[in-house]
Structures are given as C-alpha cells and as structure tokens.
Amino acid sequence: MPVTPNLGLNIPSNGTQNWDTLLNYNFSLLDTLYGNLPVLQSLYDETAQSANISSTPWFSPAQSGRFKISGYIIVTTAATSSSTLPSIVISWTDADNATVQTLTLTATNAGNLLTTFAQASAMISVAGGTTVSISTSSYASSGATAMQFALHARAEAVQ
Fold first, then answer.
1. pLDDT, tens digit, for every residue of 23-35?
2. What is the pTM of this model?
3. Contact residues for 151 (Cβ-Cβ < 8 A; gap 6+)
C-alpha cells in the first residue's frame, strides 16, 4: 500500500484518513498562518464559440463581498480572411451603491492568429443576493471559415 506523504501537514499515516476533516483543518491552519486565502467561487468555460456570448448569469453570492475576476480568451480557429476576438464583459450590482456596473475586462484583438489572446483580472464588490453576469462584445469574422474562440473565467472570493 502506498505511503501518504506528510508534507508538514497533519496527515495520519494509519490509512484511515478523513479527508474532509483533514482538508478543512489544514486550510484553516493555512488561513491562520498566511492570512485570508482566496476561495474559488465559480468557474466559467466555453469553447468552440463562433459568435458573441450574450449576457449569461454566472454566479450569485448569498452575502455581499469582494471578488477577484480573472478572464482568458483565445482564438482556437483562425478565420479565412480576418477576425476580431471579442472583449470579455462582466456585469454586477455593486455592494456599496446598489447600482449595476459593467466592466470590459479585456480589449478586442484583431490578430486572427492562433497566438491571439487576451487576459486580465479585476476586483469587484458584489451585493449579496444579486447575480454576476458574463458576456462578450464585438466578435467579428470574415471568410469561409469563421473564427472560433474559447473563454475561461474564474471568480474568487477575497477579503
């Protein structure tokens, strides 16, 4: 039977690990030692997109909080003639003024190559009980083969 490495954490070596308790304890320990660690709130992944993504509800926090939003968008199929990789757009209701906000997270890019991408991160403050939405804007493609792209985004709750 393989041996579980200890790695300096409180991992019992008798083969009766209760992983939920173990992980919760060690994450609490890390949080105490290193401060408040970000907590994954939600992932968003779309591939083989050949048009703008309309505004899509992404996640809805129960309580108000701050979130680090990271986005990555890349051309996966170049168009025959030319194309514009769309921008990533995030919308939410602000926790401080209860007003809907819209952020263009990444700029458009007319590279039309498999090396064409954009990425960015931003901090937002979201009112509890409201929805954060994601979309793209300004997709364009010309030629017999349409440009396709993939979009990957991550939201982390932060203190």
1. 455 555 555 555 5
2. 0.78
3. 44, 45, 46, 49, 53, 71, 72, 73, 88, 134, 136
Q: Which residues pair with 84 in a beta bridge?
A: 140
Domain positions in the chain are 39-158
- Rounded to a whole number, what is the distance in angstroms from the first to the last CA of the chain? 41
- For β-strands 132-137 and 87-93, DSSP reports them as antiparallel
> Tokens representing 7?
């790695």
Three-state secondary-structure class, residue 21: helix
In whole angstroms, what is the distance from residue 95 CA to residue 154 CA? 20
90: closest CA among 157, 150, 154?
A: 154
Choose among 90, 86, 124, 76: nearest CA to 108. Answer: 86
Q: How does pLDDT run across 57-92, given as a tens digit for each residue?
A: 999 999 999 999 999 999 999 999 999 999 999 999
- For the ranges 4-18, 42-56, 138-152, the lowest mean pLDDT is seen at 4-18
Fold of 39-158: Jelly Rolls (2.60.120)
Structure tokens at 134: 């994601």
